[in-house]
Design goal:
By secondary structure, the protein is an alpha/beta fold. The protein has 18 helices and 18 strands. The strands form five sheets. The chain has an eight-stranded parallel sheet. Strands 1-17-18 form a three-stranded antiparallel sheet, with no helix packed on it. Helix 6 crosses helix 18, helix 7 packs antiparallel against helix 8 and helix 12 runs parallel beside helix 14. The longest helix is centred in the first third of the chain and has 25 residues. The radius of gyration is 27 Å and the shape is globular. The termini are far apart. The relative contact order is 0.14.
Length: 575
């Protein structure tokens, strides 16, 4: 075919583009001239733009791109290596994570090494299933089917779509999920079906035959998310749209009616939802009455859907109460938490029932009696003396025949930094490994270790991170960052929603335009894949370390690898 024949089929190719291009250039030049005049002679808020009109705006363009683009063009220094991030992205997408040649962080720079066995095990010789029993003395103990759970992230800090993806991933992957201090919301129950519930404690919304017909037509021509969004607008009030669960088989929206009497709530937890740990923060969100005080009745209702309770005293950099900017306090979040909508939400610094050790542990015992389920607390420690205060109080309760906490969650100083003051992010609390050594040593010294499970969390990404914390004495590992990356986080550091900047992938934002594009079902698969590969990696490491069970791990399996500061001195290894 000749060029003339091609132009005859596609006359657009033979058009004279010269005039159009000139027009575009003229418009562009006029716009730039107007911006330059505005910067130099009109605006009086930015000195840089007065001195360098127009061209000074390049600084702000590059500054805006710095955070979201840093991982592509800069060195990854926050984690051990960029390979850890790459590993999560690969395994969460079901890809092979094996590396070729070598990692970017040299082997000799590793601070900790694992001691391998002379005669290693085959993978099938290592335990295939992991479990941890919490609250063995409670009427309703909880046995986790995994040693890994998704750490506390509140619905509201995370978008409703993101929370639903995590809940579905946790349900399919069979690992527990922590509500965060925002409390239990309908999005954590996204896998629940109407057939698994008694109607007595539900509020149900069903569309007309016309609405259902529109849904089915849209479902045929588009996708699940688009058709469901349209159907929701036709069935549920806009103000309540995020608080209802959708049953695809019956085309019905429903939510828990928290005003129903306690007697109408189920006695046992439905098998159709993930294992949920309810976290109670200083704001008492989800379990407070109209005056903001703790409600026994509401707490008991919530615990009909949760396996255990975690009272948060501190979390990484958040030694103050949690913060949620007004841009994230939607009508739905206000409904769940019992607070005014569209206003900054700052929780009290101190947990209201923790004025001293006796008051705090009496409240823990009160929760245990109300729920008949395990109850623990979350802290960050800064010294041995700091933690011994807890141990002494717990020991006194044991001697007096009182109940004590069933578990303690230890968060490292580098955790919980999604929205926290800069002055606290790098100056508060011990790193998790140091903290775990202190906690185990003190609990053993006070003869409390056998009664209390230890949950550890802080910057855990890959299987080697998990095994290292298990060696330091943790019974269970909570992960937040790793699960965020698996769910699509690109680490743009715009989680807070401050200054009009929102999470670009729709995971950690309440911005309707961005979160409506989030792929709930697809990302839930990625979350489950990530958890599965974490456990597989743990088993692989156990095999080469000559272990058959995680209970065999100890500090003796770690080699501290320190680098000599003197020039030309060799590396040294000490057990």
């Amino acid at each position: 075919m000749t060029k003339e024949d091609l132009f005859s089929y596609f006359p657009l190719f033979s058009a004279d583009w010269g005039v159009f291009i000139k027009l575009i250039l003229i418009i562009l030049i006029l716009v730039l001239i107007n911006i330059a005049i505005y910067d130099r002679f009109i605006q009086r808020k930015n000195q840089l733009l007065i001195n360098f009109p127009l061209i000074g705006r390049m600084r702000y363009l590059f500054y805006m791109l710095r955070n979201p683009m840093r991982q592509y063009f800069g060195d990854e220094t926050f984690y051990d290596s960029f390979e850890k991030i790459d590993w999560i992205n690969k395994v969460s997408h079901g890809e092979n994570p094996s590396l070729s040649f070598s990692p970017s962080n040299p082997y000799g720079n590793q601070k900790t090494l694992f001691r391998h066995a002379n005669f290693v095990n085959e993978l099938h010789e290592v335990q295939a299933e992991f479990s941890v029993l919490f609250g063995e003395n409670r009427k309703i103990p909880y046995e986790s089917k995994s040693i890994i759970g998704r750490s506390a992230m509140s619905d509201g800090a995370v978008s409703p779509e993101g929370t639903r993806a995590y809940a579905r991933g946790a349900f399919n992957g069979q690992f527990p999920i922590n509500t965060g201090e925002g409390g239990l919301t309908s999005n954590f129950l996204a896998t629940l079906n109407l057939k698994d519930c008694e109607n007595s404690y539900l509020e149900i919304k069903e569309g007309t035959w016309f609405a259902k017909t529109v849904y089915r037509i849209m479902r045929f021509f588009t996708n699940r998310e688009v058709s469901q969004r349209l159907y929701r607008h036709m069935v549920v009030r806009q103000k309540d749209r995020g608080s209802f669960i959708f049953d695809r088989s019956k085309l019905v929206y429903f939510r828990i009616n928290w005003h129903s009497p306690l007697e109408s709530f189920p006695e046992s937890i439905s098998e159709g939802i993930p294992d949920i740990t309810f976290q109670m923060g200083s704001g008492l969100y989800g379990v407070r009455d109209e005056e903001g005080n703790f409600s026994d009745d509401h707490y008991q209702k919530v615990m009909r859907f949760c396996r255990m309770t975690e009272v948060k005293l501190a979390q990484g950099a958040k030694q103050t109460g949690g913060k949620l900017l007004a841009t994230k306090v939607s009508d739905d979040i206000a409904y769940y938490r019992g607070i005014p909508a569209h206003k900054d939400l700052v929780s009290p610094n101190r947990f209201p029932y923790a004025t001293d050790m006796e008051t705090f542990f009496d409240f823990i015992e009160r929760l245990q009696k109300l729920s008949d389920k395990p109850v623990g607390f979350k802290i960050v420690i800064s010294s041995r003396e700091n933690f011994e205060t807890y141990a002494k109080a717990l020991k006194e309760r044991v001697l007096e025949g009182k109940d004590i906490a069933d578990f303690i969650t230890i968060d490292g100083g580098d955790g919980g930094s999604a929205t926290a003051p800069l002055e606290m992010m790098s100056k508060i609390g011990l790193p998790i490994r140091e903290a775990l050594l202190i906690v185990n040593e003190v609990l053993n010294e006070y003869e409390l270790r056998e009664h209390i499970k230890i949950i550890a969390s802080e910057k855990v990404l890959t299987p080697d991170d998990v095994v290292e914390l298990l060696c330091h004495g943790a019974d269970f590992i909570n992960i937040a960052r790793g699960f965020m990356i698996a769910a699509g986080c690109i680490r743009a550091r715009e989680c807070s929603g401050a200054n009009g900047r929102n999470c670009p992938v729709g995971l950690n934002t309440m911005n309707e335009a961005k979160r409506s594009k989030y792929l709930v079902i697809e990302k839930s698969k990625h979350v489950a894949f990530y958890h599965h590969q974490l456990l597989h990696g743990v088993r692989s490491l156990l095999a080469v370390m000559g272990k058959r069970h995680i209970d065999e791990l100890s500090m003796d399996d770690l080699i501290s690898h320190a680098k000599k500061t003197e020039e030309n001195q060799p590396y040294c290894s000490t057990a």
